Amino acid sequence: MAKRILTAVIAIPIGLAILFLNNNHIFIATMAALAVISTWEVLSATKCIENKPVSIACLAFVAFMPFAYTYDIFAPFIPLICFGFLLILFTIVLFMHEKIEFQKVTLMAFMSLCLSLSFSSISFLQKNFQHGIFYIVFVLASVWIGDAGAYFVGSKIGKHKMAPKISPKKSWEGFFGGLVSSAVFVVLLAIGYPLIDRLMTGTNSFVVNIPYLVIVGFICCILGVLGDFTASILKRQCQVKDFGNFFPGHGGVMDRFDSLLFSMPFAYLIFKIMEPIAPII
Q1: 3-state class of 206 per DSSP?
Q2: pLDDT higher for 158 or 118?
Q3: How far apart are CA 96 and CA 53, in angstroms?
Q4: Minimum mean pLDDT range among 26-40, 113-127, 209-223, 240-254
Q5: Fewest CB atoms within 10 A around its CB: which of 103, 149, 151, 220?
Q6: Higher pLDDT, 7 or 91
Q7: Which residues share a beta bridge with 206?
Q8: What is the pLDDT of residues 93-140, one digit of tens each?
Q9: 3-class DSSP assignment, residue 169
Q10: What angle do the packed helices 172-201 and 210-238 form, to 10 degrees?
Q11: DSSP secondary structure, 74-135, as one string
């Protein structure tokens, strides 16, 4: 427990500093680094790390994609880059089919695409929205507060297991407790954000659509559980407890950020359709 607390004490201020510096280049570089580390962890868990061509292709792809997704100059080439990545992987399989399993390469192709998109979505939110930092904090809070609420409620009253063969500790009571915890925090966040802005600027410059934000928060929380289950299945099949030890006491980057695998891309896509914050005219 002491190790977990010490890690949190160190990691949280660093994360907040990167968020509120709001420097596009630092932000993208950080997301690329996290994508590379998490991909390395999955490569190690699946033993694909032993195949250097596959490892190099996956790591190079996830390192580059946050920059490609974010900088407009690369936008027209993204489909071609993704196609080229898949083509390289399956060319490797063609020439090394006796040394590597086809299903492992397809798994790494899928995980590389998902991880690069997930971490790039954080950069999308930061770069493309006026209230991007708030949206990132909102998604992180929806998922991680929901996870914490699920843990505490499930440990106290959890009786009905959600998926005992995948994640034995997760219960339906904990799941709904997590949703309620997430919703309460999202409401507080949505009320507090305009108040802080008014204290800093002296005016009411925007309004937050709280019901819409709560609904999106619910969905992000559910997608967070789905991402967690996805990682749990992978760990069980690879027979590993954690993906790594990048965050001592918490596991690897993948262990800490697996719940963002689907929730971050969803938040970016849904906010592109309709933002929960509108300016006061």
Answers
A1: strand
A2: 118
A3: 10
A4: 240-254
A5: 103
A6: 91
A7: 279
A8: 888 887 788 888 888 898 899 899 999 898 888 888 888 889 999 999
A9: coil
A10: 130
A11: GGGGHHHHHHHHHHHHHHHHHHHTTTS-HHHHHHHHHHHHHHHHHHHHHHHHHHH-TTHHHH
Rounded to 10 degrees, what is the CA torsion of 191, 192, 197, 199? Answer: 120
Whose tokens are 């709560």? That residue is 214
Tokens of 121: 């979505």
Give the pair of three-digit tokens for residue 167.
């994640």
Distance CA 61, CA 103 (A): 19
Q: Which two tokens stand for residue 233?
A: 């299945």
Beta-carbon count within 10 A of 201 CB = 9
Identify residue 173 by its one-letter amino acid code. Answer: E
Angle, CA 234 vertex, CA 230 and CA 237 arms, to 5°? 140
User: Does the pLDDT of residue 266 top 90, yes or no?
Assistant: yes
Cross-strand pairs, 247: 251
C-beta neighbour count of 274 within 10 angstroms: 10
The set of residues, in sequence order, having a beta carbon less than 8 Å from that of 92 and lying 6+ positions away, is: 51, 53, 54, 57, 100, 105
Token look-up 């089919």 returns 97
* Rounded distance between C-alpha atoms, residue 275 and residue 67, angstroms: 24
**From CA 161, how far away is CA 155, in angstroms rounded?**
12
Residue 51 three-state SS: coil
Summary mean pLDDT of the chain: 87
Distances (CA, A) of 257 to 156, 181, 208: 25, 19, 27
